[in-house]
What we know:
There is one protein chain. The chain is α+β, with helices and mostly antiparallel strands. It has a single domain, classed as Immunoglobulin-like (Sandwich). It is 26% helix and 46% strand. The strands form two sheets. It has a seven-stranded antiparallel beta sheet with strand order 1-2-7-5-4-8-9. Strands 3-6 form a two-stranded antiparallel sheet. The longest helix is centred in the N-terminal third of the chain and has 29 residues, at 2-30. The relative contact order is 0.17.
Amino acid sequence: xxxxxxxxxxxxxxxxxxxxxxxxxxxxxxxxxxxxxxxxxxxxxxxxxxxxxxxxxxxxxxxxxxxxxxxxxxxxxxxxxxxxxxxxxxxxxxxxxxxxxxxxxxxxxxxxxxxxxxxxxxxxxxxxxxxxxxxxxxxxxxxxxxxxxxxxxxxxxxxxxxx
Length: 163
């Protein structure tokens, strides 16, 4: 009876030690988050009523080890509403304390474009259009790294009539 109780206590201690050591490993792999920002956007040929763009993401790695990736996915919200999404199977490495630019084709469904056209007209008063970019850089032993970026797009101001 006492032997069973001792065995259970030892088992619980082993489980506790294992959980603590896993927590330490997670801390070692965590590192600082990637810094991702929009480096540019270029139009692509659309299909049907949808619009397409090539979104260029600048990915900065503030960590002491390189990050290998084998794909990227992104979602872009404008004015708090879903606007575009895209995926790419591009592979590469973000060097330690370095950066790289990744191209991701974005698709804007026709309904989202119409909805944002009305929101754009409303935002023209403030001159600012808030955006939120979320995504995931796939790969590595942890399966990938999530990132996000947000800010405001400045709208053109002044007389746009061309006169």
